[in-house]
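Hi there,

I know you've been waiting on this one. I reran it after we fixed the sequence typo, so this is the corrected version. Both the input and the resulting structure follow.
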Amino acid sequence: MLAVTMLSLVTVVGAQSKTMGDTTVVKGTVEAVDQQARVVTVKDTKGKFITVDVPEGSKNFGKIKVGDKVSLRYYDGVTVRLKQPGEAAVDSSAAAKTPAEGKEMTGTIAKQRTITAVIQEIDPKVPSITFTGPNGWKYSRRVQDKKILEKVKVGDRVDFTWTEAVMIDIESPK
């Protein structure tokens, strides 16, 4: 999803922030459950593998088994905002879960991460832009609209907020 973010960075500079996101519906079968890492791997009907991180405290995680049928509604979105000079840097994350009423293995899992990144390099020939952030994070991306590169400079700071939410419905084989 960050790729979409970089392609739309021009909108961020003109406006103070921009949110982009996609919702995908996936039906498939549980192929693997990693209890220690709290990850479920689902194979969709086209053979693609999708991993879902399950936060601590999800009561029914231990009941998920290989072979369970799964329906996922997945949202992946990014908000990008150009920071004002002197504004404090951000590095935070949060997760939440909401069980569905009346269904034991249905609910929503969401997580959000916000970081402040700094523009480290601008290459107008490609055109591309490179960011660095906390904990050694580094990201480079092509920019479709070269005009955006005229509106930012090396050293500018940007807040990226990633939001992921999965509504999940699991049916164990009878």
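Quick highlight: Confidence is low (pLDDT under 50) at residues 1-15.

Best,
R. S.
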